[in-house]
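Bumping with the actual sequence this time:
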Amino acid sequence: MGDKSNGHPGAAGRAATADHPASVRNVVLVGHSGSGKTTLVEALALTAGAVNRAGRVEDGTSVSDYDEIEHRQQRSVQLSLVPLEWDGFKINLLDTPGYADFVGELRAGLRAADAALFIVSAADGPETMAGATRMVWEECAAVGMPRAIVITHLEAARADFEDMTRTCAEIFGGDDPDAVLPLYLPLRGEQAPDGHAPVTGLIGLLSQRLFDYASGERKESEPGADQASLIEEARNRLIEGIISESEDETLMDRYLGGEEIDVKTLIDDLERAVARGVFHPVLAAAPAAEGARQGIGTVELLELITGGFPTPLERAAPDVRGRDGKELDIHACDPEGPLVAEVVKTASDPYVGRVSLVRVFSGTLRPDETVHVSGHGLSDHGHEARALHEADERIGALSAPFGKQQRTLTQCIAGDLACVAKLSRAETGDTLSAKEAPLLMSPWEMPDPLLPLAIQAHSKADEDKLSQGLSRLVAEDPTMRLEHNQNTHQVVLWCLGEAHADVALERLRSRYGVQVDVIPHKVSLRETFAGKSAGRGRHVKQSGGHGQYAICEIEVEPLPGGSGIEFVDKVVGGAVPRQFIPSVEKGVRAQAAKGVAAGYPLIDVRVTLLDGKAHSVDSSDAAFQTAGALALREAAADARIHLLEPVAEVEVLVGDDYVGTMMSDLSGRRGRVVGTEQASGGRTLIRAEVPEIEIGRYAVDLRSLSHGTARFSRAYARHEPMPAQLSERIREQAQDVP
């Protein structure tokens, strides 16, 4: 990684292929929006010879930007796979969106990858890394995923590589900042009149070689005396950092004793430390100048990926279970083993139909084979869950995506990724296995969508297509939940944020031809009696022939929360014949479901039937149902009715600097803080109870208040009375509805 050859670029126009897992590298690019991930992918593709010229996100020619929505929004909104070939290796680059609303695409990339590149802009401040990016870093650390850092935008006037490297060490290094150190230092050219000196190359700290990109091609030479003196301190620190992570315990003693450690030994130890996830090198990158063949740092980065990142063979075997639920011991990455593959992403192509991006963990996937598809029933978190599903499906064409192209593959071996056409029953997160030996992989964790979007069909024609469009949408995106609320009679899409919601609406319109209207989201309120009350229901009508006659007297009293509706019969002397007592109860419960004040279901009351009258001819089941409903309405008219609102248990994980702001905001939402506790990384966990009506847009507001550094979860706790003023306003609104 500093004195290797330039490698052998792959040829543009053909699919990159692999014949053994050891020759595959799966790398996910992580970073905040605007950090330069897609531009870096373009630069790597150009250096590797996969393209003849770099594309542009702005004009829709990027190799990892092929969705019409991305073209219009000029930002990535979905995971993209870009396969390259370099020095005999196949490199699968997984470009992820940087915007927080599309973290589901990021999680899919992490699932499919074996190592991660964290992309950081030298022109930005540390706050851009302090939130979601650091959380992803911690997730990778928890599973030991190898990570490296790439500092981009070195061409910016305010770019400071050294300062950003120190920031990365502070944020990502944790207790060991010497585990985050640069492998190269930028080489700057002549200073311009504005005082800015452009980066023209790199100086290798281990190899002590100069790599000049000024001509558009990487040229290697000896550094000058002044340049050699600049790197001495950084080089010594890098060597000490590598040796401290070395598996050779004698190396540090030899180094401290003054022995000159061979560069090859250092590079070998560095590669092992990176692959084990205990050392995180920092590299620099800048896009190629117009007409240039190689971007600054791209060769060095490709060398790191092929030499320092692990092969799929080094990844632990996935948790796989058989149909009986017993865990099976699957040898990871054996191309001859049983088929175990996972759908990490599902998309719809207007010409091909459904396309599934699949990571093969064991066995070999081939076209025209029949496989078994097994899907998880996801936890609903208060919304509708996806059901467990199983089906046998025939594998269609296998391909490697490259921008808008799909390059045909003859097979996909263990450790590799490929796109599979027309898996009509497979959803994101599903397992593909041999049809004679069905298997199921454990699902990966996805964030719970917390922003509700209530929608309705724009027209009758849209209504006919809405159900199918929504089902396809949620099958593609597991971070989206669909809810048909039986209480509010609304169709609700739960999303991660406003941008996520916008993309969902745009996909409904452009992909599935469904136009919808967004309507105000309703919270499921309830009603209950504040005290005892009595009511008399009299339903007496004579209209020729048999009439209708039923009278009943009831008493209503409140019960503790969670009691529901309790019906008690205390009729004596047969005032209400026994066969009609269930009719009274049925009428009471039907009216309770409709509500007695503002149209919301009545709960937590005991209704006692005390007395009544019947007629030997005109009394009937229907008459006593009507009388029961009338009695409940009369009791409500003479009583004080509480409107109950749902209260959520909310947990907010936020940086210590924002605790005061969060407390104040929760208080302004009528929330009650019930406790706080210190969390890792200078953060605090706040627990509070907040009315759900106050947190409809909390997913958006929290991001704004914390500058994207906080996250929260919510769970239903109970219903409790609303404040009188708010309750009265809702009653008035209900009366105004025709």
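The tokens above came from a reply further down the thread. The radius of gyration is 32 Å.
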